[in-house]
C-alpha cells in the first residue's frame, strides 16, 4: 500500500512540474530562444560553408584564367619571336643572295683567274661551295675585298686565300666530326666500320692520287668524305690505316676489290661512248649535253650558258657537273687500266 501511494505521489508531482513548465511563459520563451539560437548557428555554418566553397571555386577559376592568359601570352610571344626570326632569316637570305650574285659576277669578270677549262670548272664549283657555306659577314668581307682590289692579281690572291680557308675549314670540320663519332671507339673499331662505299672510294682515290701528290693522304681523305653519302668522316690517319689493312689482303681478293671499285666507272665510260646503251636512251639530255660540249669549245664566250640552253631541262650547274663526272670517269678508267696492267 505504501509503495502504491509513493508511486502515485511521484506521478502527481511530475504532472505538476510538467504543467508548471507548460504554463510558465518564461520557460517557453527560453526554449524558443534556445531553438532559434541553434537554428541560427546551423544556418550560419551552412552559409559559411557555402561562402567558403564559392571562394574556393572563384580562386580555382581565377587560377585557370590566369594560366590561360599566361599560356596565350607565351604563345603570342613565341609567335612574334618566330615571325621576327623568320623575317630576319629571310632578310639575311636575301642579303646573302645579293652578296653571292655580286661575288659570282666579279669572279666571272676575272674569268675565275684560270685559263684551262678543267681548272675553270673546278674553280666554279669551289666558288659555289664557298657561297653556300659562308656566312653573311664572310660574304660581305669577300665582296668588299674584291671591289677594293686595284688589280687582277690582288683579286686573285684574295680569291685563293678564301678558297684555301674554306677547304681548310671543311677538313677541320671533317676531322672534328670524326673525333666526335669515334670518341668511345678504339682505332681497330674505327678501321672496321668502313662501309663498302667508302672502301671503294678509297681505292679510287689511291689510284687517282698516286705517290708524289702533295698532301696525298689529306687529299684522299677529303675525296672520300666529299663523295661518300654514308659512314664516318675520315682523316689522314684513318685512311693510312685502312690502306695498310687493304694491302694485307689476299692478292686475288685485292684484284676483286679493285674491279668492284671501278665497275661503275667502267660502265659509265662505256655508256658515254655508246649512244645505243639503255642509259643514253632513257636520258636524252646526256646525249644533248655531250653534243653541246663538242659544239661549244672552251674558246666560246658564255660557254656554259649556251650549253645549258642547248640541253632541255638542265641548268648550267647540272651541265658542269655532268662534264666533271665525264672527266672523272675517264681518269678513273685510265687508273683502272693501269692497275689491271700492274696486277697482271
TrEMBL record:
It comes from Acropora cervicornis (Staghorn coral). Residues 291-327 form the Myb-like domain. It holds the Pfam family Myb_DNA-binding_2. The keyword Ligase does not apply. This is DnaJ-like protein subfamily C member 2. Residues 270-282 have a biased composition (Low complexity). PROSITE patterns: MYB_LIKE. Residues 68-83 have a biased composition (Basic and acidic residues).
